[in-house]
Amino acid sequence: MNMYWHELKATRKSTIIWTLSITLLIIFFMSMYPTFSKEAESLRKMLEGFPDALLKAMNFDMDTFTSILGFYSYIFLYILLCGAIQAMILGIGILSKEVREKTADFLLTKPVTRQQILTSKLLAALTSIVSTNIGYLITVLAMASIVEPNSFDQKLLLMISITLLFIQVVFLAIGISMSVLVPKIKSVLPISLGTVFGFFIVSMFASSIGDEKFRYITPFQYFDAPYILQNQAYDLTFVVLSIVLVSVLTAASYIIYVRKDIHAV
Amino acid sequence: MNVIEIKNLTKKYGKARGISDVSLTVEEGEIFGFIGPNGAGKSTTIRTLLTLIYPTSGSATVFGKDFIKEAPEIKKEIGYLPSEVFYYDNMKVIDLLKYSASFYKKDCSNRINELAERMDLDLNKKIDDLSFGNKKKVGIVQGLLHTPKLIILDEPTSGLDPLMQQTFFELLKEENQKGATILFSSHILSEVQRLCDRVAIIKEGKIIKVEKISTLKESNYKKFRIETKSEINKQIFALDGIKDIEVDDHVIRFLFKGDLNPIMDKIAELDITNLWVEEPDLEEIFMHYYEKEDKDR
């Protein structure tokens, strides 16, 4: 437990900053909605002039765009992007910071197993992500009822919003496995941003060409908001895929970390 | 009882460094020195023993327990001070020490204060603001605060001023008298000579010799230096037990081990102007081991 609290304290500041940024971002986006819905007709006309592929890449759907949920599913993509970056930085930093700050010797010569170390760190990272999500969900529900006076399906809003947590868990797992595999990570930020933007670009590409196969490559496509909106359900294949991916990556991280040589620096 | 028993421990890193076939035992209550130049494998051995790295082959026990399987159990009673200390920078010294203490199921706060006072360490400073020497002190307190039964030190004195080094050695001796076993690695002979009971000499990943400090100094060589009026013929001293003869005009130098009488007879035949017979210091003995190894090959 002491390691968990220590980790939590160490990530506290960044968790608060990320939560604030993401909630501010959604407040900003949502407050634009009344303008959008008022100008719906002219906006629709304007967008009709845009190339089809571009609209698809940006997740635009003409029919739903001007409803609150349609609008939300479009802006949610950028919330996901932020969330993915947060999770990735957490995941990569969690073990690599011990090597970078040269504190691995301190921790690993204490009477604990490496499994315990990794578990504490993982739980601390999960706690951090869950707190961000709680803050986000409250904000999103509040904002939606403020900007949309008419009734709308709150359950769907919640179903879409909670995928932020799912995506973050997937990226956390990717981050941790990378931090175990790469021998020495000098700087977390470039690697995190690179990986997340890489997946994001692939996702935009996948949306625009509409090829199913590409959806498997990038976690951004696993919980497609327009899909949830249309079917009122998650795409089961990708739910299973996410669970498998997270389990495999986490298990691999444990196996590798327990056997890894920690070199003097 | 043997606190540490290392058997044929081998660690290969690709081709270059590492250790091969290291075997040694450290008995309960002794201060064991581990000496060799940088890169000889001291740290590798210690880090393997602490399961920071895993051996390619071989085994070891600490307190009679398998060092890998029962690592967490063993580490309850180990205090470790790495050669380079870097701790969570944004923490205060006291917070770090409390965090360290939280891993051991005992109250260490008195011990922390006591050690900090002895080492003249300000507990309320941020670790980030400390000098290298002061960080080292944090490391020392961190390594001793839970009164471990086995203290492992990897080149502990670098960065400490001589006065602090003195205090530190006193602390270690006190711990030792209270029953702690100490494994101490160093490339500085004088500190090993001051502190240790036994010493293992390591070179290029292999243990060359394990010897008591006292035997290392005693049983060995006398250093002779003889100055004569006339030039000396090297052949006069072609005796058993003489090594490293050097003739420099009127001065002859050699190391000798064995019965002193034949040598004295030889010297009596000479017309000498000056004579020195000295105990070689550890440094010379040590160099001798290293040179001998090279010649044997």
Automatic annotation (TrEMBL), chain A:
Pfam families: ABC2_membrane_2. Keywords: Membrane, Transmembrane, Transmembrane helix. GO terms for cellular component: plasma membrane. It comes from the Bacteria. GO terms for molecular function: ABC-type transporter activity. The chain crosses the membrane at residues 16-36, 71-95, 122-144, 156-176, 188-209, 236-257. This is ABC transporter permease subunit. It comes from Aquibacillus halophilus. The lineage of its organism: Bacteria, Bacillati, Bacillota, Bacilli, Bacillales.
TrEMBL record, chain B:
It holds the Pfam family ABC_tran. It comes from the Bacteria. InterPro entries: AAA+_ATPase, ABC_transporter-like_ATP-bd, ABC_transporter-like_CS, ABC_transporter_ATP-binding, P-loop_NTPase. Gene3D superfamilies: P-loop containing nucleotide triphosphate hydrolases. Keywords: ATP-binding, Nucleotide-binding, Transport. GO terms for molecular function: ATP binding; ATP hydrolysis activity. Residues 4-229 form the ABC transporter domain. Signal peptide: none annotated. PANTHER family: ABC TRANSPORTER ATP-BINDING PROTEIN, ABC TRANSPORTER ATP-BINDING PROTEIN NATA. Belongs to the ABC transporter superfamily. This is ATP-binding cassette domain-containing protein.
